[in-house]
Amino acid sequence: MFSLLGPASNIGPRIARRAVIITAMIFSSLAAFLMLCVMCFSVPYTRALYVLYSSQSEGIRFGLWGWCPEGETLCTEKPQLGYTWGTEISNSSATTGLILYPMTSVAVFIFMIASIPSLRSDATKAHKTISKVLATTSFTLSLLAFMIMIAIFGQAKNRFEDAGASAKLGPLPCVSALATLFLGVVCVLTFKVTSSTLESSPDDIRKFNDIESHLTFPPTARRFSKQYGTRKY
């Protein structure tokens, strides 16, 4: 239909692409936020959410804030920001770096709220800049947290195996990788949705509504003309 309508023929598809990108961005950011929240409730809060399992000491699971022995109700006395376990996890400063996970959750939440104005077709340059900065910050924090996790627990896994115990990574590294991937998608889409190629100028919007007003019957046409100032032929 739009191919027959002259200069405004590309407005409809452009608006449709923008809507699809915004929908994907919202879904991806929400998915990443929920995954990061799940990460924050790992061992010792929830036994099923752990980063590393080792058969040492009859089985033990490690999370972001501590550890839990298998077959016992007592885990770490209290969640700890930075902990150690023998020579396998010997640097408490390294595990302190896992605080990046709740920090990333907060950053993503702030992004989801702050990016709402930038999704408008008449968003200001400041709103777009804020969204880009927050999206990039969220992705960077998530990627850094994932790298720290793999560095700590990948090395611990090797040390447990060298000591004769079996060891395997739990579900949380996969959750963290997926959250980082989603945030990477969000970052790309944020730059895409705020780019000039998807923006509709006031003149474009007026042309589009002018077309709509002449493809409908009164009183809809009169409503378009009154609301958007479309031309009357």
UniProtKB/TrEMBL annotation:
The chain crosses the membrane at residues 20-45, 99-121, 133-154, 169-191. This is Uncharacterized protein. The lineage of its organism: Eukaryota, Fungi, Dikarya, Basidiomycota, Agaricomycotina. GO terms for cellular component: cell division site; growing cell tip; plasma membrane. It comes from Coprinopsis marcescibilis (Agaric fungus). Keywords: Membrane, Transmembrane, Transmembrane helix. InterPro entries: pH-response_reg_palI/RIM9, SUR7/Rim9-like_fungi. The keyword Transmembrane helix applies. Pfam families: SUR7.
